[in-house]
Amino acid sequence: MTPALEAAQRPAAAPMQTAAGAVVGVAALSSTKPTLGSHVSSVAASLGSPWTADEHLAFMKGLASLGKGRWKEISRTFVIT
Question: How many C-beta neighbours within 10 Å does residue 57 have?
Fold first, then answer.
């Protein structure tokens, strides 16, 4: 069994109280995990802008023509932005 799988099967650590009195889980104290705020901002930056109605229609035509899973071909052939 891999260490990651073993860790996932272990029960969660009990919450603890910080010096300021806030109750946090052990994972919240880890400095290796990114904060939620940094993840949200990086995801928002990579999303770009929503498709126009014409782009969505072109995508749907490509999906009907080429089928599910052929995303790169659909983007190169039908949804050229």
Answer: 13
Closest among 5, 6, 23, 22 to 14, alpha carbons compared = 23
Euclidean distance between CA atoms 81 and 62, whole angstroms: 14
* DSSP-derived 3-state class of residue 48: coil
Instruction: Specify the number of domains making up the chain.
Output: 1
pTM of the full structure:
0.43
Q: What are phi and psi of 70, to 5 degrees?
A: -100, 55
**φ/ψ of residue 69, rounded to 5:** 95, -10
Q: Could you report the per-residue pLDDT of 2-11, keeping only the tens digit for each?
A: 655 565 565 5
Range of the domain at 34: 3-77
